[in-house]
Known about the structure:
Blueprint: E1 6-9, E2 14-17, E3 21-26, E4 29-35, E5 41-44, E6 50-51, H1 53-61, E7 66-69, E8 75-79, H2 89-97, H3 101-126, H4 134-151, H5 164-188, H6 207-229, H7 248-253, H8 258-271, H9 286-300, E9 303-306, E10 309-312, H10 313-328
Parallel strand pairs: 1-5, 2-6, 5-7
Antiparallel strand pairs: 2-3, 3-4, 7-8, 9-10
Amino acid sequence: MAIVRHLIVERQCFISKHQGRLKVLRGKETVAQAPLMHLESVLVTGSGVTLSSDAIAACCSGGIPIHFVDELGRAYGALYSSGLIGTIRTRREQLAAYHDQRALTIARALTSAKLQNQAGLLRYMAKYRKESAPESFVRLREAMTEILVHESRVARVGEGATHIDELREPLMLLEAHAAQHYWRGFATLLPEGIPWPGREGRGSRDAANSVINYAYGILYNEIERAILLAGLDPYAGFVHADRPGKYSLVLDMVEPFRQPVADRAILNFLGKGGAIEQDEKGWLSEGTRKELAERVLERLDRPVRHDDKHLPLRHLIQQQARSLATFVRGERGTFDPYAARW
Length: 342
């Protein structure tokens, strides 16, 4: 039996535990099997999926998260072991940090890393187009330069702010201006025939934004898992404001990883001839969702160089969450989110 580390389950399936493995059935047909000893995560991507209590218990006892995303890539739930939320000291310090200088340091660091990675991805993609597509090369380099100009202003934006509520608006405005340049450059990388209406978030039904939102939904699950394992509260963020049901810290911590994980996976998918198939409602087809999910999960397992080591991006996400936890607890003096080497 093949080793399956990340099990993707589509619509109208039943997941059961059978002889030390998860077994996925559609009707009477076995569509997948995954030995529990190798399994690291389960991703449920469609409707009508049912799970046996034995399968849930086996995953929880084995520390295997079960993530749920809908047809638009919206992460709407996850199952974890209850032991993951048993820590309290880290959460107390996380909540206290919101009211002092630690929050400003965290917000600036995350924004700086995000802009560095946006510029880095455009720089990386531009270098392969200098001879073959000089016009695209120029547009990508111009966008990259503008983003780096904005990144250089992160340390000074909101000067004089003593509380995160005073810094949030000018910081997010700077981030939004940089994003305009990033998405203009990203559009240059899309294959001909895929229109770009501009960046649109959840609920968008055009092809390009649909794959972006779907890939981001998968990444959100990985970020949330890392946050919980680090003993942090996924709903208590710093850059993103509080709102009932909004996992603000997930939205904060995902920022440095959008480009190295999701956007790279999307460009790889499209660059290798991946087709974006949609139904009459604008939802991605089951085949497109499955292939895109596989690309994102593969990217998470891709080793990258960081601090003179080669580590999978999945491990760097966990490392960043633990770094934040130790920072808010006062066990380290700096918080340095992931800035990729492109």
